[in-house]
Amino acid sequence: xxxxxxxxxxxxxxxxxxxxxxxxxxxxxxxxxxxxxxxxxxxxxxxxxxxxxxxxxxxxxxxxxxxxxxxxxxxxxxxxxxxxxxxxxxxxxxxxxxxxxxxxxxxxxxxxxxxxxxxxxxxxxxxxxxxxxxxxxxxxxxxxxxxxxxxxxxxxxxxxxxxxxxxxxxxxxxxxxxxxxxxxxxxxxxxxxxxxxxxxxxxxxxxxxxxxxxxxxxxxxxxxxxxxxxxxxxxxxxxxxxxxxxxxxxxxxxxxxxxxxxxxxxxxxxxxxxxxxxxxxxxxxxxxxxxxxxxxxxxxxxxxxxxxxxxxxxxxxxxxxxxxxxxxxxxxxxxxxxxxxxxxxxxxxxxxxxxxxxxxxxxxxxxxxxxxxxxxxxxxxxxxxxxxxxxxxxxxxxxxxxxxxxxxxxxxxxxxxxxxxxxxxxxxxxxxxxxxxxxxxxxxxxxxxxxxxxxxxxxxxxxxxxxxxxxxxxxxxxxxxxxxxxxxxxxxxxxxxxxxxxxxxxxxxxxxxxxxxxxxxxxxxxxxxxxxxxxxxxxxxxxxxxxxxxxxxxxxxxxxxxxxxxxxxxxxxxxxxxxxxxxxxxxxxxxxxxxxxxxxxxxxxxxxxxxxxxxxxxxxxxxxxxxxxxxxxxxxxxxxxxxxxxxxxxxxxxxxxxxxxx
Length: 662
Prior knowledge:
The chain is globular and about 70 Å long. The chain starts with 9 loop residues before the first helix and ends in a 7-residue tail after the last strand. Strands 1-32-33-34-35 form a five-stranded mixed sheet, with no helix packed on it. Strands 2-38-37-36 form a four-stranded antiparallel sheet, with no helix packed on it. By secondary structure, it is mostly beta strands.
């Protein structure tokens, strides 16, 4: 990629001007390439402002509640005044094997859940009684599922990713719909550019999104290596399975962003850039928002010099056509695996006397990026600032990265010697003090190195899938964090086949790999001091943090009276409700809680015998409001914490006692 004076590309110059709030008319040649036309053939009209009434927050018929990914329920039967009375309404065991992290959906009078890795079941949502169960050959996506029905309600379909195939299933009985694709399924590899014969089936836990009569599927990366397939976005007709459009995440020749990658004969092997997590649909504006991942290889990019669009970007696509409307890259030339880990959140705020529909994107490295979702203009300035240079042979780290000036970050971003965890053995503390003498630790965006570099909050830190929720009525944003430092140490893979498989290799550019090291200590705890997880509430009208509290505890420390440390590595997502509550589960203390949405204070908690990972479902059935959590296993990293053997894998539903709150 050609660099301008100061090592700033033309794309970067555009990004800087935009983040400074100086977006000019799209008539300018450079801006015209980035301010693409919105649905309807023109830039999204300023008058097109979706309101709360535009969306259904009562039902829970899609992953995260709805295609808008709000993780919000307008139900308020369970509220601050009565939540302390919640009790177990029913349980449904899913059997041995993988613990559930699947977000159930309510379809009519059925609750759809996943059993193990290959069986769907429909339950009575009020009792948990099984209505039907169907096992499919191969794995199903483990986090969620899609539902669609025809306008007259006679055709009702579930859509799953099953061993790399998009499958349509009759919601009434679980039977595959033979007329969809070829024998009920579509191979999502078909439509990728180039020869796909060597690409394995592309299985993913991202369930995709429904937009009207279209299902939009985000393909996963084909390999965790230098050579991979691009993780493109495909859209299919929900009735036939015919492809409607495709968007290239690694731009092809003639497409915007093509020159942010090196021109090389084996360019077709550049891949990754995958929306592995979640996506969001704004049906009112006709947009689908795709948060993307890192270009392969995640920790060394000497062979892929440039910014690597559309890696680490929010990409707004016309949901009807797949055309790019706008994008924003949150990390240039990622070297830290800081992919965008969750669905963008939507709401409308009042700013400068106008109603502005915004998009909120929390990222792994602890920031919150906020944009006008019609145009991609930042709500608050985002600045390009210098960051540390790489000293690894062949590597050219980006000289600058985007920094939101507001809101304040929700997670810690540095790890220094004075922050060593006091709850680990003294021998471990001594080793860490010695480590700090040898590693690179230059603050934010310290690049990976041969001697090792400290990364904080690390690529399993910040937030993750399902990790945030909004209250679109009260203009609140809630985000769950993990604060786990990582040691980014590169070693050279000297195998001839490794060099041969690396696109654009040669000279100093060699296959440097990283052994993932989350710096967990001998007793299973993080190297850094607590809190290891927080839950943060923002007022999005002002961008102010209104509260931040430790999220969960560690069982073995709580037994010693050491409380409020935060869970070590929670993967429980929050759900906000109109009752003024936030429901969330944690793993290292095996609890589910209801918190006060105004203060973060715990109003109710329930002790489990296993972890709760994933997003609860909130719905109404038979006049009662239910909250259903997936439960099972030890949780991420928790087996090293000395916990008892976990109880059965199951879904647990909570409700008020009969007569209470009704």
